[in-house]
Amino acid sequence: MIKIINIGMNHETAPVELRECFAAEVGGLVKALTAMRELECIKEGFFLSTCNRVEALITTEAAEEAKQFVISMMSRLGNIPEENFSSSLYTFEDTDAVRHILRVASSLDSMVVGEPQILGQLKEAYAQASRHKTSGVIINRLMHRAFHAAKRVRTETQICEAAVSISYAAVKLAKKIFHVLDGKKVLLIGAGEMAELAAKHLIANGVSSMVVANRTFDRAVQVAELFDSRPVSFQEIGQQLSEVDIVVTSTASPEYVITYDQVKNSFRKRRNRPLFFIDIAVPRDVHPEVNRLENVYVYDIDDLKGVIELNMAQRQQEAVKAERIIQEEVFKFDKWIKTLAVVPTIVSLREKAEYIIQNEMKRSSYAFTDLNHEQNEAIQNLMRSITEKIINDPILYLKKKAASPALNTYLDVTRKLFSLDHDNGSE
Domain 3-156: which topology? Predict the structure, then answer.
C-alpha cells in the first residue's frame, strides 16, 4: 500500500548552524530530486530547502527503505554524518504528513506565523519537482490542496495581519540596541525580498541614510533607487564598515561575507562607536567570531525568535480558525486518497464494458451494413449510455465504501461478480 512520508527539520528542531549546512549546498534541491527520481522505491518526491527548514516529501510502498535513503541523501547534501543531525529530524506519515505540509503552506509552522514568503518557496519547490518529473498524481493533488488551504487561511482569517516579519523583528532589535534610529547609517548587504523589507522598516523608523551592496551591482542600483540611497560594490564593504552603525545582511552566499579581520580593521576609524549586525541569511553571512569583538553585536536569524513581538491573543484566536481550515482540507484529501484503492477495479469494470460493446458490435455488424456512419455512431453511443447507467451504481457504491475497513471484501466481490480477473468475455 502506498504511503506518504515527510522527513525534515525546521527552526524548532535544528539550530541555524545545522540548517545552514544544507542551505549552503549549491544545487541541493536539483540533486535531491535527481536522486529521488533514480531510486525505485520512491514513487514520487518533493524537496524543500529554505533558511528555516529542509524537508523531503515522498510516496512509497517500501517505507523503511525510502526513509533511510532520504536520511542518507540529506547526509550527503549537507556533508554531515547522519548521527550529527538525526535527532533533529521529524517524520510524519500519511494523514500527519498531509496535515504538516498544509500547515507549512499556510505559514502555521513558520518562525513567524502568517509570513507570506513560505508559500512562494513551496510553489517554487513544487515547480522544480514537476520540472524534474518527480511529482505524480498524489503529490500534485496534495500540493494543490496545500495551496488552496493557504489561500483559505489568508482570506478567511486575519492571521497574516497578526504576523510580524523577520525583517521587522530585526529592526525592533536594532531599536533595543540604539534606543532610537534617527541619524543612524545602515549598510544593506544583499538585495532580495527580505533585504528590501528590512530597508522599508529601517527608513520608517528614522534611519537617516543607507548604502546598498550586492554582488550584482545593477541590482544594488535598483534597490538603492527604491529607497533614495546609495549603491556600493561588494569590494567597498570593508570601507563601509568604518562608517555605518547598522549592517543588515541577507545574501545567498555559501561563504561568509563579513570576516573577523574586516570588522577588526574598521575599528581605527570607528572610534569605539558600536557596530550592530543583523544577519538574516542562511547560511550565515557574518563569521561567528565577529561577535567576540568589543562594541560589536551580531544577531542571526535564530536570535530574532526572542524579539518577534506578536499580538498573541489575536494570533491564537486566528490560529484556531486556521487549524480548523487545515483539518477540513486534510479530511478532503484523505477522502480522495482512499478512493485510489478502488480505481483499478473501476478501470477494469469500464474496460470490461467497453470490450463487451465492441465485441457485440462486431457480432452484429451484418445487421448494420445499410447504416451510414452517423447511424452507426448513434447506436454505439446508445449502447455506451445504457452500459454506463448499469455500471454507474456499482462504481458509486465502491467510492462510497473507499474508507470502509471491509473495502477489500467489496472489491473482491465486485471483481468476481463482473468476472474482472478473467480474460474479457470468458469464464
Answer: Beta Polymerase; domain 2 (3.30.460)
Helix axes 343-363, 407-417, angle to 10 degrees: 10
Q: Which residue has the higher pLDDT, 35 or 25?
A: 35
Q: What is the pLDDT of residue 196?
A: 80
pLDDT at residue 161 is higher than 80: no
Which of 3.90.950.10, 2.60.220.30, 3.40.50.10090, 3.40.50.720 would CATH assign to domain 166-307? 3.40.50.720
pLDDT given at position 411? 82
Asked if 69 contacts 42 with a C-beta cutoff of 8 angstroms, the reply is: yes
What residues are annotated to the active site? 51
pLDDT at 45: 96
Question: Which helix or strand (DSSP H or E) is residue 5 part of?
Answer: strand 3-10
* Contact (CB, 8 A) for 142 and 333: yes
* Contact criterion met (CB below 8 Å) for 160 and 114: yes
Residues of the chain with CATH 3.30.460.30: 3-156
Looking at residue 426, what is its pLDDT? 43
Strand-pairing partners, residue 188, are 212, 248
What stretch of H or E contains 57?
Answer: strand 53-60
